[in-house]
């Protein structure tokens, strides 16, 4: 039987996700550029990973046995930075330096500059390959850490993703769990219209992966899917998380235009007030 989260744990995750979302909106507004839509859609996934599952801590940021996380859709750096700050890797105040000159918080994550970032990403399609390498290294070195990766649904249009999919299945990387942030939108519009990767679950199954389909904003469902993935042997797991682009901000939700647009300061105040009103 898959372990469930307690009501207290679910309440904490809701608080963490709200804080992450508020910081995403604030930092992108301050930077006057960035990618809020796909960052907000992934906030619940990262909240569960970092506060209910992964064996990571700022005090052991380089520990050889820590779990690894790769943000393959690197343009969603705000959600990773906000999560790392929530976890204590970064000062929360530093988030407002996003994309500024001499800031270590670049528009895409850089592993040499930022504690807690396991892989520099930004060129779409490459992150899953890096996660594969980490998972294979764990097998070779007989270590029991797990590797997690987050992909965008538009990113599935990249050919390297499917080479990596074959690799992970071929080498039976059952210590690898990946997520697709399936919000249905990319910078140019609906993924189904730009270059359709659909049907997503069936494709990953055909490539030899265990596939789970969940509500990507349901903390309990996210957690249970991760626990199920840990029981799977001899194949990697893909969790297809159905999400809402811009989740938590009504004006942003399901609007492709917010893929890479910053709010004005007036919009930011309204959005933060809306997020503050969300139930924990």
TrEMBL record:
Domain Transketolase N-terminal: 16-268
SUPFAM superfamilies named in the record: Thiamin diphosphate-binding fold (THDP-binding) (SSF52518)
Entry's EC annotation: 2.2.1.1
A matching Pfam family: Transketolase_N
PANTHER family: TRANSKETOLASE N-TERMINAL SECTION-RELATED
Similarity comment: Belongs to the transketolase family.
Swiss-Prot/TrEMBL cofactor(s): thiamine diphosphate
InterPro entries per UniProt: THDP-binding, Transketolase_CS, Transketolase_N
Alphabetic keyword roster: Metal-binding, Thiamine pyrophosphate, Transferase
Name of this protein: Transketolase 2
Molecular functions (GO terms): metal ion binding; transketolase activity
